[in-house]
Amino acid sequence: MDYQIVFNVGIALVGFTGGWMVNRVFVLLDRIDADMKAIPLQYVSKDDYREDIREVKEMLGAIFKRLEHKADK
Predict the structure, then answer these.
(1) Residue 19: how many CA atoms within 13 Å on its side-chain side?
(2) What is the DSSP letter of 1?
(3) What's the distance, Cα to Cα, between the start and end of the chain in Å?
(4) In sequence order, what DSSP letters do the residues of 56-70 get, joined into one string?
(5) Please, what are the averages of pLDDT over each run of 10 residues along the chain (73 residues)?
(6) What are the residue ranges spanned by the domains of the chain?
(7) Quick one: pLDDT at residue 41?
(8) Which helix (H) or strand (E) holds 24?
(9) pLDDT value, residue 70
């Protein structure tokens, strides 16, 4: 067997393995990018949470005021 053929096969294997690894890295980066874009749809932002908690506190405050003014206390 000629050394040139062995060299060419070795370079082909190294090239194939390197290309496959680079492809896997880019696939994983695309998956991470998709996950990062989905974060706002899965989790609540701080501002939205604060606004919702403020509304709940206002409702509870109104309920407690009504309970304090009940005649049968």
Answers:
(1) 6
(2) -
(3) 103
(4) HHHHHHHHHHHHHT-
(5) 92 97 97 90 86 96 88 65
(6) 1-42, 44-73
(7) 79
(8) helix 3-42
(9) 79
What is the rounded CA–CA span in Å between residue 14 and residue 11?
Answer: 5
| Whether pTM exceeds 0.85 | no
Structure tokens at 27: 């696939």
CA dihedral 52, 56, 58, 60 (to 10 degrees): -170
CA angle 16, 18, 26 (to 5 degrees): 110
Residue 43 per-residue DSSP state: S
Cα Rg, the chain, nearest whole Å: 32
Residue type, 31: R
Residue 10 Rama label (left phi>0; alpha psi -120 to 50; beta) = alpha
